[in-house]
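Quick question, first post here. What does this chain look like in 3D?
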Amino acid sequence: MTSIATAYTALPPQPLCDSKGRLLDDAVGWSSRPQVDCTLHGHAGRRKRWNHWCITTPQWMLSLTLADLDYLGYGAAYFLDLESGQAVAHTQFRPFALGCQLPDLPLESHAFSHSRLQLRIDEHPGRLRLTATAPDIGGQPLQVALDIQRPAHLQSVNLVAPLQGGGFHATSRQLGLPAAGSVQLGRKQYRCTPGQSFAALDFGRGVWPLNSYWQRAAFAAAGGIAGNFGSGWLEHSGLSEDALWFGGEVQLLDSPMQIERSSQAPLAPWRLDSADDSASLLFTPRQLHRACPKLGPFHANTVQWFGHYSGVLRGPKGERVPVDGALGWLGETHARW
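> Answer (accepted):
Ran it through. Tokens below.
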């Protein structure tokens, strides 16, 4: 699985690792459709599984995390009103990941269940239903009911890479999924704007070193335009997750993406530029969210900025494709886990 697949075929998925937990060479690489069974063997206490959802609309954003870290289950919800700046968040832990149901394939149902936070994603052919409930998030009840489409033509970045120290990671980055439905926060209802509301999934399964750092940026816009850029975990693999979408088709970038912050001010703009001019973007944050779940000496310190991307992309035929205020985010994580 070393290059983009031209078409999806219903072949049995490629195993990620063998029965002793060793990464299989045939799984390493990337494709435009999920092709790997991410069942993890061995490495007790070191296995990391997560599904992270981000929904963007012109008026609001929603971030949901479901994670199984072997010794700990983690569910989180963050809602941001882009117009008022109001933000609320709730984090919930489950020992030994009780109540956290995460599959080994990216297109399967998953859930996190706790009396204070319930997250559920039910997959159906060509679509999924995302629901979330929290009785108290920032002093108000939260109810989420979203219908998310999976257009047949929409591709994704599916990548398996070795990590330093014998670890490895598999990810499926799915961007630009059309979203409909609503969020109820207290007495206020927020609805998806048709044609301008998108969901993104970050599916991750792997065996990580104790101390880790990574960075990721992403956006989506109407017309099947999207971008995904990352660093911090692929430097020693010779692989890249930097990609652009045009009309739903994914195009892996040939040169690395430089991601630089203009200053240390909390909401300072960021520049994202590729050496071959495939992308030249300015990210302007509107709000930042900090999350640092801790358990004894372990933690995952994440800063995530939400805002707008503007600039120019180079299309598959060399044409200039403008990006004007596309909604997205940029995040950094330092983890000891």
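Confidence is low (pLDDT under 50) at residues 3-9.
Residues 246 and 317 are 11 Å apart (CA to CA).
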